[in-house]
Amino acid sequence: MLRTFIAIALIALLDSLNPATIAQAAVFAGTKHPSRAVIGFWLGAMMTYLVTGLLVLAGLSRLISDLAKHPPDWLLVVMLVIGIGVAVGGVITWRRRHSQSIGGLLVAGNQRTAFSVGIIATVTDLPTALPYFAAIGLITSAGLNSAQELSLMLTYNLIYLLPVLLVLALRLIAGKRAEAKLEAITAAFARWSDRVIAVLMVVGGVALALYAGFELLS
Predict the structure, then answer these.
(1) Is 54 part of a structural domain of the chain?
(2) Are 188 and 103 in contact (CB under 8 A)?
(3) For residue 211, pLDDT beyond 80
(4) pLDDT for res 176
(5) Do 79 and 208 touch, CB atoms closer than 8 A?
(6) 170 is in which domain, residue-wise?
(7) Is 94 buried (19+), middle (13-18) or exposed (0-12) by CB count in 10 A?
(8) What is the pLDDT of residues 13-48, one digit of tens each?
(9) Of 40, 132, 145, 162, which sits most exposed with the smallest number of CB within 10 A?
């Protein structure tokens, strides 16, 4: 157990040096309410990463892989509807980019927005989470009981997201000295966030809808 714990902790420590996650935490640390924004982001990322890991640990990854390789018609219809919905949502977001404001919610330090970003950012980062999946493989091969496996999964996730909390701690310690720089980063992110999100929604939605449509017709 101790050797496995040390190995898991070291892998998680290396995985925690994720520039994308740290940069997003820095953005939320520069908002009007840094504590609740960063904690919201942390909770969203933690929940998503931990639940995904537990599903893989439970062996559901094979089922998901089979569904991805040979999706049934009902799943393709659901994907088609989702793709169209996401694309339409992207168009609406683009048209309202000057009046609404996802960026404004970010600057305000809205906790729900931060929580949602934590979920979305973690999901999009999963294809690169090779260290995490390697750690899960190590846990499953260690011959541990369920409680020990769960404790190792929690350990991994806490270490992986530790830099997010460190960013918040540095922001609170530095106070006014860091505030101006972080606010400038957050403001720049907010100006472009609506446009970037809208484009990603349209591209991703259209791609998903086209894939589902072609599969249904083939």
Answers:
(1) yes
(2) no
(3) yes
(4) 65
(5) yes
(6) 2-69+103-191
(7) middle
(8) 988 888 778 888 888 887 778 888 899 999 999 999
(9) 145
Domain count, the chain: 1
118-141 pLDDT, tens per residue?
A: 888 888 777 778 888 888 888 888
The answer to whether residue 204 sits within a structural domain is: no
Question: Is 166 within the bounds of a domain?
Answer: yes
Q: Is residue 8 part of a domain?
A: yes
- Structure tokens, 114: 């931060």
The Cα–Cα gap between 187 and 174 comes to 19
Q: Which pLDDT does position 181 carry in this prediction?
A: 64
Nearest by Cα to 12 from 56, 55, 46, 35: 46
Which amino acid is it at 125?
D
Structure-token match 């070291």, residue found:
10
Distances (CA, A) of 55 to 68, 130, 136, 139, 142: 16, 15, 10, 13, 18
The 3-class secondary structure across the chain, one letter per residue, is: CHHHHHHHHHHHHHHCCCHHHHHHHHHHHCCCCHHHHHHHHHHHHHHHHHHHHHHHHCCHHHHHHHHHHCCCHHHHHHHHHHHHHHHHHHHHHHHCCCCCCHHHHHHHCCHHHHHHHHHHHHHHHHHHCHHHHHHHHHHHCCCCCHHHHHHHHHHHHHHHCHHHHHHHHHHHHHCHHHHHHHHHHHHHHHHHHHHHHHHHHHHHHHHHHHHHHHHHHC
